[in-house]
Amino acid sequence: MNRHFFKYPQFMVFLLLISVFAGGCAVQPEISGRTTVEDKTTRLLVGVSTNAPPLIFRENNRVSGLEAALAQKLGVFSNKEIVFIEVPWDKQLEYLEQGKTDIIMSGMTITPQRSYLVDFITPYLRSGQVMLVRLEDRQRFSGGVTDVMNTHYKIGTITDTTGDFFVSEAIAKANEVRFKTSAEAVTALIDKDIDVLIHDAPVICHYAAVNQSEKLAPILVMATEEYLAWAVRKNDGELKNEAERFIRTITENGELAKEINTWMPYLSR
Question: Dihedral of the CA atoms 213, 214, 220, 226 (nearest 10)?
Answer without folding.
Answer: -110
